[in-house]
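Hi support team,

I submitted a single chain yesterday and got back a structure, but I'm not sure I'm reading the token output correctly. Could someone confirm the output below corresponds to the sequence I sent? I've pasted both exactly as they appear in my results page.

Thanks,
R.
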Amino acid sequence: MILSNEWISGFVDGEGCFHISVLKHSDTSVGYQVLPEFTVVQHERDKQILFALKEFFKCGVVRRDRGDRWCYRVRKLSNLNTLCLFFDKHKLKTKKRIDYVRFRRIIDKMNNGEHLTPDGIRKIVDIALKMNTGNRNRLFQIKKGLGTK
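Hi R., thanks for writing in. Yes, this is the structure output for that exact sequence:
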């Protein structure tokens, strides 16, 4: 299956998700780990498109998500940098673009090592709280635990 750049951008606009998790992690110097993730979920009848995305971007995994749902997932920072270059060039058109821009800011902070400092984690949490996220309560708890600056 051959996918065009414009088709991918439009498809991700409708079906993609840019997500940031921040988890307590005692093995890290700041006690927290930032986990950025790009995902696309489809019913199993359309999972071939997920494999085509994996082939196009040359990274990520495709696996069963839940029940009859499958997902294409990219978590590795170097691979997320590649995806960001693509979406910087082939812009999203819907409100999802706002989440992408925030996601990109966090990726940039991670590339600069800011996720390895308490102040950097604080800034990342502040950005993530503005994204379309289901983990607001956890992020607020982390922010509270880090204190304000």
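A quick pointer for reading it: The first strand starts at residue 16 and ends at 24. Let us know if anything else looks off.

Best,
Support desk
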